[in-house]
Amino acid sequence: MNCDGVIRAVSSYIDGELGLAIQEEFEVHLKGCKECTIFVQQTKFTVKIFYDAELVDLPAEARSRLHEALRRKIREAQR
Ligand SMILES: [Zn+2]
């Protein structure tokens, strides 16, 4: 997996929705890439704030809004 793959997969990774094999590739990449490690930590932090604010289970619609917001943030971060 390369950096682009990490960026694309990060929201699934945080949600625990990556397949085991992909998750392993993801983590192997993180071990060797400081930038992606920081990126994943920042994204996790953002997600945590969102979840704490919204509490409990998110309806599907809110989840897709979250993912959309994350994708926007990720695109901004890549500039
Ligand atoms: Zn990377």
What can you see in these coordinates?
With 79 residues, the chain is an all-alpha fold. It is built from 4 helices and no strands. Helix 1 packs parallel to helix 3. It is globular, with a radius of gyration of 13 Å. The relative contact order is 0.15. The model has no long low-confidence stretch (mean pLDDT 85). Bound molecules: zinc ion (ZN). Residues 3, 6, 29, 33, 35-36 line the site of zinc ion (ZN). Zinc ion is lined by residues 3, 6, 29, 33, 35-36.
Helix-strand category: mainly alpha
Biggest β-sheet: count, sense, barrel? none
Figure out the total of helices. Answer: 4
Q: Quick one: how many beta strands?
A: 0
Helix content: over 70%
- CATH class equals Mainly Alpha
The number of domains is 1
Radius of gyration: 13 Å
Mean pLDDT: 85
Amino- and carboxy-terminal Cα gap: 21 Å
Q: What compounds sit in this structure?
A: zinc ion
Gross morphology: globular
Multimeric state: single chain
User: Which architecture does the CATH hierarchy give at level 2?
Assistant: Orthogonal Bundle
Strand content: under 5%
SSE succession: HHHH
Which residues form runs of ≥5 with pLDDT under 50? Answer: none
Which fold name fills CATH's third level, the topology? Arc Repressor Mutant, subunit A
Compact description:
By secondary structure, this protein is mainly alpha-helical. The chain has 4 helices and no strands. It has a single domain (3-78), classed as Arc Repressor Mutant, subunit A.
